[in-house]
């Protein structure tokens, strides 16, 4: 891909969506807000077909959730008249929000959504209408899944690029669930993940507080999980996990991002602890491993002394050959790196709290 | 006999700019759910802003029937008279 192709970064905040665009990833123009006063929780730049489609999941505290898309990068927005995601009547459930939007790696018309409450949804028309996955919704564990501070949601959806029948989802609390039969049945995949907050059984089958899972870009059966206290790697497609937290400044954090071009490489954004949700030593920083979690390096160049942090989906990458990495903070700043996190520069500041960051590359 | 359903300014674009929607009630009184169903029938996006897919009024939306908060009455089962006025109002909450 040409290094001169334009980059677009979607910045979803607590009070609307901004779109940052750049031809060189140094100078950025900012367009927004779209959906002013709505919490923008999920974004997807769907570049599988031309033109690029941007899907946005947001909610207004007054008017409820909505999912809209644009095929002209925000000039006009389309909302399905009947609502893209509506819980079926027999569930006696109302949608609270769409937390995750993911392009299927096998079918260019398929988009997956993760919602609050804990639903997984499949669209076969590029995100215009969705159908509830009944295998997960009817899972006997569902009544025991809990709610994190932000609510109970499917916050991670990772279809396998190696197998169209394989997918991992994650929730807090509840943990990891896997399917290998195209979503008909789901099994918990939390073996090895510590749940210190469950005093009677700290190693339960499910109930873990998994904050984010990322899939290795070279080895699809390898995954990285940032937990509520604990960082883990799985080498068996998310069934069992081993700790990779040694060498990190802290085992707490909200997000994990796999390097999109290089296997065994993953970024985390460490947070001091669950009781002190600030950067370690009040220095905003990322941690990167290039050996699948065996060793870690702190990345701080260009990042400030700070009392803020980075939320679950407020980090993402673009698709350039040398990928850009973008992180957004709770105090409304967005930083970009074009050297794998060795240095960062400011994309935007003085925005509302950043909830989600996703990037795309335009033709 | 006509019920007036008065919309807040923030939602009027979703009803082609209308400030209020008339609903004819042939048989006299009707539940609020029926009145809202009829008022919003041509405007499904507007309907979803006010009520969720179960038909419940959203948490931070208030609906008044002749000045009475429906949530403090019978909710969407609150009786609406044939000449009543229904106000849809966004709650004074936010951050």
TrEMBL record, chain B:
> What InterPro entries does the annotation carry?
Beta-grasp_dom_sf, Mopterin_synth/thiamin_S_b, Sulfur_Carrier/Prot_Modifier, ThiS/MoaD-like
**Which Pfam family is one of this chain's hits?**
ThiS
Gene3D superfamilies linked: 3.10.20.30
The entry's protein name is Thiamine biosynthesis protein ThiS
Q: Organism, per UniProt?
A: Knoellia koreensis
Q: Show the taxonomic lineage.
A: Bacteria, Bacillati, Actinomycetota, Actinomycetes, Micrococcales
């Amino acid at each position: 891909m040409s290094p001169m192709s334009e980059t677009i970064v979607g910045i979803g905040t607590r009070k609307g969506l901004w779109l940052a665009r750049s031809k060189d990833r140094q100078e950025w123009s900012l367009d927004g807000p779209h959906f002013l006063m709505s919490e923008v929780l999920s974004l997807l730049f769907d570049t599988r077909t031309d033109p690029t489609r941007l899907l946005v999941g947001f909610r207004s505290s007054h008017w409820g959730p909505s999912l809209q898309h644009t095929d002209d990068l925000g000039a006009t927005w389309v909302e399905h008249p009947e609502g893209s995601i509506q819980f079926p009547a027999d569930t006696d459930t109302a949608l609270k929000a769409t937390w995750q939007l993911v392009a299927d790696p096998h079918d260019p018309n398929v988009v997956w959504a993760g919602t609050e409450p804990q639903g997984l949804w499949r669209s076969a028309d590029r995100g215009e209408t969705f159908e509830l996955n009944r295998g997960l919704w009817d899972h006997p564990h569902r009544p025991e899944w809990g709610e994190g501070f932000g609510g109970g949601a499917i916050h991670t959806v990772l279809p396998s690029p190696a197998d169209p029948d394989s997918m991992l989802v994650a929730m807090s609390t509840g943990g990891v669930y896997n399917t290998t039969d195209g979503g008909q049945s789901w099994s918990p995949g939390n073996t090895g993940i510590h749940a210190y907050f469950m005093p009677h059984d700290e190693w339960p089958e499910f109930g873990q507080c998994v904050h984010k899972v990322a899939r290795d870009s070279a080895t699809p059966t390898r995954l990285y999980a940032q937990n509520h206290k604990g960082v883990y790697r799985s080498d068996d497609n998310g069934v069992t996990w081993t700790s990779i937290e040694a060498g990190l400044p802290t085992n707490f954090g909200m997000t994990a991002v796999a390097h999109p071009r290089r296997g065994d490489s993953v970024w985390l954004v460490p947070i001091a602890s669950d009781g002190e949700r600030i950067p370690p030593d009040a220095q905003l920083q990322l941690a990167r491993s290039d050996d699948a979690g065996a060793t870690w390096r702190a990345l701080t160049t260009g990042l400030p002394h700070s009392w803020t942090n980075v939320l679950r989906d407020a980090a993402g990458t673009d698709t350039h050959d040398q990928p850009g990495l973008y992180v957004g903070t709770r105090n409304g700043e967005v930083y970009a790196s074009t050297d794998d996190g060795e240095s960062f520069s400011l994309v935007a500041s003085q925005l509302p709290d950043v909830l989600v960051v996703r990037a795309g590359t335009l033709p | 006999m006509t019920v007036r359903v008065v919309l807040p300014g923030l939602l009027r674009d979703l009803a082609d700019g209308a400030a209020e929607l008339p609903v004819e009630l042939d048989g006299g009184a009707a539940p609020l759910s029926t009145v809202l169903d009829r008022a919003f029938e041509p405007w499904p996006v507007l309907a979803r802003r006010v009520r969720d897919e179960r038909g419940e009024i959203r948490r931070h939306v208030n609906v008044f029937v002749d000045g009475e908060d429906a949530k403090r009455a019978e909710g969407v089962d609150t009786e609406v008279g044939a000449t009543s006025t229904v106000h849809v109002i966004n709650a004074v909450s936010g951050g």
